[in-house]
Amino acid sequence: MPTTQDTSIASPIGRDTPRVDGPRKVSGRAQYTADFHFPGMLYAVPVEATIANGKLVKLDTAAAEKMPGVRAILHRQNIGKIFRSVTQPDFESICDERRPPFEDDVIRYYGQYIALAVADTFEAAKAAADAVRATYVKEKPNVETDLNADDEPNVVETTFGPSERLESHRGEAEAAFAGASVKLDHTYVTPVATHNPLELHSTTAIWEGSRLTLYESSQGVINHRGVLAQMFGLPEENVRVITKFVGSGFGGKLWPWTQCPLAVAAARQLGKPVKLVVSRKMMFQSVGHRPRTQQRVRLGATPDGKLVSLQHDYVYHRSILETHHEDCGEATPFQYSVPNLRVTFGRAKRNVGATTDMRGPGRTPGLYALESAMNELADQLKMDPVKLRILNEPKIDESLGIPFSSRHLVECYELGMEKFGWSKRSPEVGSMTRDNLTLGWGMASCSWVAARFSADATVQLRDDGTARVACATQDIGTGTYTILAQLASQRTGVPLDKIDVALGDSALPEGPLSGGSMATASVVNAVFAAADSTSASLLTVATTTPGSPFENRAPADLAFEGGRVFVKADGAAKGVPFDDLLRRANLRLVTGMGKSEGTMADAKPKYSMHSWGCHFVEVTWQPEIARLRVSRVVTVIDAGRIINPLAGRNQIQGAVVMGIGMALFEHTTYDPQSGAPINSNLADYVVTVNADAPPIEVHFLDFPDKELNEVGARGIGEIGLTGFAAAITAAVHHATGVRVRELPVKIENLLV
Ligand code: MOS
């Protein structure tokens, strides 16, 4: 498909655009959820179960209730009614843990909430929560890390991706593997990983009669409203969810967690606003994690490297009650061309909190396994790993039998090799050195689904020359405020600094989740349609206002571009600024609404739509002191048109930083005796810090994907993490000769 460049200099699309909300953030004026305070507000602190399996038999709240400043200790007997919520079609009302808090006395994971202390201050509430005494009947928790699939039907609910891809079969995978001349059969393991955004999950609940307002750290205010309306038996219009800024989410804030209904129930009972902010320790227990996965990959190939069979059989752990699916095999059926393929999965129940989506859910662990296997196959064949991939590049999506809307993965490899200097690679282990360091080079491909949620938006033009764009989506730190301003500016000609962006409020026109890397792709057509509708209203005003220079002209003869209305035949130079026309008509504003449909319900898509890319990495290794460092990264991404390359590069760099953590540091460990996540703090759960992060070079191709929206933008939040760990483990092998197949790579693994 041809590359098309927007040649208009004035176009804000495709330009490096600093965040429109940047000044508010750096000056501290951006209010995050926990920054809101209300008169008479009370503070709530949950009491956490200290067992992971058993029953709560007695709760002694007497001492806690008598403590100074304490308003209530809520528990199963006095919390009041909280309904279960049920998922509605088209991504409405999704929540991970459907059992409302305190619904029964069974304890299924460590840290499950068993009571709630509410007091005048946070300190008083915390002291009271600590003073609650619980008695349990305790059973041994199952937090076993070796995963064998349970003997239960695979009933799952998927949040992203078409369900026909849950398992995939074509040809005769087993027979083709048996007959293949080159074979590989390895199992790859990824550990439990915990979302650690800087901002903790927080809720402030305010009741006014039967109306509920929630200040919430959410990646989806509309979904959040749907769930909470159900839980409290309210019509949706009585619930308002506000999320002005999010200190990141990584998937952990996509769906409501149980601290939210707890705050709402406490506020209902006490008649005051109630704030609840979870602790860092609770972040590891009760608000989701990426499940542990164990993935067996079998590849069969011809001696010259053509894949003949691919089998990907994986098992992941799940919580006792929930059905969240970790879709590790989602990309396997179309990442490469292979005639015989089988993808299957199983699940193993564990006494852990509900698992959930974490940046690149499914594909992040899944492509780690597949890409690791491809790298190992390349080594087995003594073939360059890029060459192996190009040799197996598919022409169409072989699983669905339909073309890709746009796939420029080979161009990604080519640009990546050039920028990294891949041609200087010497493949033998330990054969490359620089400044007395052993170098390891590795690479991997990556991909992420491209789709749209449905979206509504409004665009207003006002008599002071400003505009407003509104949509009930939210900015989770990715740049959504800026993207909406750029889109509105593109279509109206109003400069960026004269556009107000309203989002993060469920009272606005319904907008998409900030999830699945889909928010940007989802809002493009809606904002453009809204701007077009506003412009139609403006032209009506221009042609009907007495004394207007366009009075009695046909609207069809006029155009609105670059902020001016003009007669098409006369050209824009003779145009009149829109605010002049509004003032002349004594109008404060004109507004238009635009809609765009989602793609997820499309049962028979014409195209298979994904973003593509690849990572090239260099590690340095000093065997004398067992020091491993990531020294260089080049990532190339084909994600259609990039609306804001500045924010886009930032997204990919952030994903790569997270990928270094995934490859080398991050893993949540459960104590086999208590079932507690034991490294539940940022000292023991190690994440990448600046000292661990090398220069990260990001390049975008520019092939607009017009199947998805008018500007051809796909998504970029998640793709940068997928595949990355496999590039690191390949580089580690190249430097050290050690093949690590269980993440993270630990120094102990390399001391051989
Ligand atoms: Mo992403 S895991 O959809 O926030």
Descriptive notes:
By secondary structure, the chain is an alpha+beta fold. Helices cover 24% and strands 24% of the residues. The protein is built from 17 helices and 27 strands. The strands form six sheets. A seven-stranded mixed β-sheet has the order 3-5-1-12-9-10-11, sandwiched between helices. Helix 9 (363-381) packs parallel to helix 16, helix 12 runs parallel beside helix 13 (519-544) and helix 15 (645-664) packs across helix 16. The longest helix has 26 residues, at 519-544. It starts with 21 loop residues before the first helix and ends with a helix. Bound molecules: dioxothiomolybdenum(VI) ion. Dioxothiomolybdenum(VI) ion is lined by residues 219, 249-251, 254, 357-359, 361, 515-516, 718.
Tag the structure with descriptive keywords.
752 residues, alpha+beta, 7-stranded mixed sheet, 5-stranded mixed sheet, disordered N terminus, binds dioxothiomolybdenum(VI) ion
How are the SSEs placed, and which strands pair?
Blueprint: H1 22-26, E1 42-48, E2 54-60, H2 62-65, E3 70-74, E4 106-107, E5 113-119, H3 122-131, E6 133-138, E7 168-170, H4 173-179, E8 182-190, E9 202-208, E10 211-216, H5 221-231, E11 239-242, H6 259-270, E12 274-277, H7 280-283, E13 293-301, E14 307-318, H8 332-335, E15 340-349, H9 363-381, H10 385-391, H11 409-420, E16 433-434, E17 437-449, E18 455-462, E19 467-470, H12 480-492, E20 499-502, H13 519-544, E21 558-561, E22 564-567, E23 576-577, H14 578-584, E24 589-596, E25 610-622, E26 627-638, H15 645-664, E27 696-700, H16 724-736, H17 747-750
Parallel strand pairs: 1-12, 10-11, 14-15, 19-20, 26-27
Antiparallel strand pairs: 1-5, 2-4, 2-6, 3-5, 7-15, 8-13, 9-10, 9-12, 13-14, 16-17, 17-25, 18-19, 18-24, 21-22, 22-23, 25-26
Helix pairs in contact: 9-16, 12-13, 15-16
